[in-house]
Amino acid sequence: MKLENTTFKKISITFTLVTAMLLGSCDTLSQLGSALDLGTPTESEINSGLKQALEYGTSYASDRLSKEDGYLGNIAVKILFPEEAKKVENTLRSFGLGDLCDQVITSLNRAAEDAAIEAKPIFVAAIKDMSITDVKNILLGSNNAATQYFEGKTTTSLEGKFKPIIESSLTKVGATKYWSDVIGRYNKIPLMTPIDPDLSSYVTQKAIDGLFYEIAKEELKIRENAAARSTILLQKVFGYAEKQGK
């Protein structure tokens, strides 16, 4: 009788598990991942699971930032005046030229949004190039191990891809003109030291910084929030990582 109850319980859990997979309920999958002993993932499962998670996280971050207001509407990554130009902004705003400063800020963020979508194939290539050792080190590493890996492997490629797009976009959205107007007006103010920051390099770097910031958020989410693991494979792989002390 006890054996029958155990068998019935396993069948019931399995049925619910299949139903959850069909319905795509992350919360239910999470609960079942805890209820069932999913076992130790194979090397192949670890490789597939982590890469699946990384591809989703990087694609999501890239897609989100490439939408209108992806940068401008996100206070954590919004691109403002370069630090060396803060005095320029404050001075012009004090002279009633706040609208011009706002136009500059909007145009800088629009340029970054134009470039963000180009990050996806670069990240996909980096993920495909990962060795099983890379995968294991990331899975069992710190909470930002994947982000650090991407920073080391993709920053140069991102800079090369982003900068020409941003330069073109800065012209298209009027940033170059607005910036010239801002710097021109500031440099004409008596007793001010003339400045001329490299705008395209600045926006390129800030756009990349914002991208890695969003990727780090996605990485932390899937490491710490079981409900964010939307497949049984992810439940198994990251559940295993937790048991290893993560």
Automatic annotation (TrEMBL):
Pfam families: DUF4197. InterPro entries: DUF4197. It comes from the Bacteria. This is DUF4197 domain-containing protein. It comes from Algoriphagus aquimarinus.
